[in-house]
Amino acid sequence: MNQKFNQSFNDRGEKAQFTYKRNPLIAHAFQIFMFKTKKGKYEPVGEYTLIDQRENIDLTEKKLMNIISILNGKQNLLDLGNLTKSRTLYNIVPNSAEEASTKIIFREHDGNGPSEENAVLVLEKGVLNESAIQRRSNA
Question: Greater confidence, 17 or 76?
Answer without folding.
Answer: 17
